[in-house]
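1st attempt posting a full record on here, be nice pls
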Amino acid sequence: MRNGFLKIAIVFTILAIFLGYTMSELIFLSFKDPVDIYDYGFDIVEHGEGGHIKTEIFASYGDCASETLTTTKNGTVTSSSTDYYYIIPVYDKNDEEYYICIEVDQDDRKLFNNITNETWDYLDGTIDYIGSYTYDFEGTIEELDDELYEYMLEWFREVDAFENETELRAHVLPLCLNSMNFGAAPTYIIILIVVLVLTVLFWILFFVRRSKIKANNAVAMSGTGVSGANLNGMPINNTPQYNNDPYNTQYNNQYNEQYNMGYNNNQYDATQYNNNQTGSSYDSVVVNGVSYPRAALSQVNSYVLTGEKVKAIAAFREISGLGLAESKNIIDNWNQYYN
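the predicted structure (as tokens):
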């Protein structure tokens, strides 16, 4: 069980780190007041990347690049999705125009094509206003990767929008609007809190269990951890920890039967035990890296020799604090340790 707690604690620790890494930005930004990039006084140059952005997109000059993600199985494409990068105008506090991208999935491409067509109709003088088509955006501003930024610059070079490269790069910014589902933030927060609490809980259980095992081993080493009876010759009459172990019902039932029929006939002789402890040599037995006094395991060995495996397992568990499965495996290979 100790190793079980350790494994679970490690799994939950890894899960907590993963969730914290993937959700941290969304959770952090959800607590910040949203900013509209088209509000008076907003400066895209000063703001840069980051922030909780909530705005209405009403103008676009068209898409400059696209990315397709495909999923394959056995060499066959099972699904694919494409994101498009549309160029939109933004402004500094002096109302000078700059340009960034917005990432658009394929479901919203038709809407952005309509926004783009209306923008060009307005620039050509065909219509007097724009805004018939709009897109509600909520997310953040992220840095555009180098490859996509180069596609964006190339788009402006082809339309000959700027006189030189310096002016082009000064006004075309490597920034991109990326949508985020802030509505899911409360759910993510709850999930993260639950995972963190469980992580702490399983680490506590692991260390508590380890402390108990160390304490049991210390008792065995000091000569007071007698299996099956205390030093006054009184039988231990407490077996729920074995009966409730679901590892092997057959062993549990057999243990109860043998305990009720004759367990008291196999008690330690406390005097003999003490004499062994105070003898001229203090022999020890190492089991799975833990050293036990040979005298403390003599009764276990007696059970093994007489073929009373269930009692041997129960006695060894009492001394070592190990679980049923580990104790059974040790008793099954007893000659490797006690000889």
